[in-house]
């Protein structure tokens, strides 16, 4: 999530994009320039796609597809992030409803901004969106970070508990990179814990030490009754090692980069795909498995995340 689209050969090079303000982001929302892509999550026991994470992209009229790292910094705590979260939530639930009609029962994970976690109307808005699209609450997973929760822990925990009581899954993203204590983590009503990609990549660089860290995190999470998802999987060896360590699910460029919704149903509805086909790397690609390659995903071609 660091690079934008390469300029067309016939166009003059554009200067680097400066992070826009809330007004520009609101304009992009109003002009329907934002879109949602989906990164698959694979269940390691069966190697089936069981869910996706919804990730926002800005299709700029001049610059093409822009990653969130280029337009969200500085806005993390702004109220416009609530509007953005609502857009992604509504888009993801609409897509989930469409997939369910086609027979693909995938969970959808949506990231929540810190501003949303202090919005006491959030649980009601989520329930209304689920009703609007006819999606069961267990289909939705709301991803939060430790840092976002710690902006106002009491309010955030109350909001999250109401969501969890409604049947919505809560996932703690980027685990191990925040500043909270274990006693605080025990208060979060989470169903899922996501191991940060820094630990997953260390697993490949130093299997001994890295394996011990991941094993400890997986053991702790399972003892607390949480599902574990590993982020940032970039090779088959890491995927196999995570399975050996009893991690539940994984996502990353080796499996697939985020793809447009139209590219998902072709293979996500398959009950099972042989591992040698599912994760065979396409020619000429250092990262990005056959899932991404099979879709002819332009993100792979241009090196977008």
Tell me about this structure.
- By secondary structure, the chain is α/β, with parallel strands linked by helices.
- The protein has 14 helices and 10 strands.
- Helix 2 (80-101) runs parallel beside helix 4 (122-133), helix 4 packs parallel to helix 6 and helix 8 packs antiparallel against helix 9 (207-223).
- It starts with 21 loop residues before the first helix and ends with a helix.
Short précis:
The chain is α/β, with parallel strands linked by helices and 305 residues long. The protein has 14 helices and ten strands.
Total number of helices: 14
**Total number of β-strand segments?**
10
Major beta sheet, strand line-up:
1-2-4-5-6-7-8-9
The SSE string, one letter per element, is: HEEEHEHHEHHEHEHHEHEEHHHH
Separation of termini?
A: 5 Å
Major pleated sheet: 8 strands, mixed, barrel
* Average pLDDT figure: 80
* Low-confidence sequence ranges: 1-17, 271-305
- Nearest-angstrom radius of gyration? 19 Å
What layout of secondary structure does this protein have?
Layout: H1 22-30, E1 34-43, E2 48-60, E3 64-66, H2 80-101, E4 107-111, H3 114-117, H4 122-133, E5 140-145, H5 146-149, H6 153-165, E6 169-175, H7 182-185, E7 192-195, H8 197-205, H9 207-223, E8 227-230, H10 236-244, E9 249-250, E10 259-260, H11 265-268, H12 275-278, H13 290-294, H14 298-302
Parallel strand pairs: 2-4, 4-5, 5-6, 6-7, 7-8, 8-9
Antiparallel strand pairs: 1-2, 1-9, 1-10, 2-3
């Amino acid at each position: 999530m660091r690079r934008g689209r390469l300029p067309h050969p016939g166009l003059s090079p554009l200067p680097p994009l400066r992070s826009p303000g809330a007004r520009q982001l609101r304009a992009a929302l109003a002009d329907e320039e934002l879109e949602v892509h989906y990164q698959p999550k694979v269940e390691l026991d069966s190697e089936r796609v069981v869910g996706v994470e919804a990730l926002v992209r800005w299709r700029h009229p001049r610059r093409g597809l822009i990653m969130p790292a280029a337009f969200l910094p500085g806005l993390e705590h702004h109220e416009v992030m609530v509007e953005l979260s609502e857009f992604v939530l509504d888009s993801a639930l609409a897509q989930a409803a469409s997939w369910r009609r086609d027979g693909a029962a995938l969970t959808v994970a949506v990231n929540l901004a810190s501003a949303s976690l202090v919005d006491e109307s959030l649980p009601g808005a989520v329930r209304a969106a689920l009703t609007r699209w006819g999606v069961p609450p267990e289909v939705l997973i709301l991803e939060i970070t430790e840092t976002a929760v710690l902006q106002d822990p009491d309010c955030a925990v109350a909001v999250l508990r109401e969501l969890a009581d409604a049947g919505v899954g809560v996932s703690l993203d980027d685990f191990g990179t925040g500043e909270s204590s274990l006693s605080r983590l025990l208060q979060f009503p989470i169903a899922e814990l996501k191991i940060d990609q820094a630990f997953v990549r260390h697993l490949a660089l130093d299997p001994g030490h890295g394996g011990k860290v991941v094993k400890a995190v997986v053991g702790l999470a399972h003892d607390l009754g949480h599902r574990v998802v590993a982020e940032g999987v970039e090779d088959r060896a890491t995927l196999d090692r995570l399975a050996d360590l009893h991690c539940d699910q994984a996502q990353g460029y080796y499996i697939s980069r985020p793809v447009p919704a139209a590219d998902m149903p072709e293979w996500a509805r398959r009950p099972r795909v042989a591992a040698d086909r599912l994760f065979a790397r396409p020619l000429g690609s250092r990262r990005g498995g056959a899932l991404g390659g099979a879709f002819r995903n332009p993100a792979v071609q241009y090196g977008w995340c």
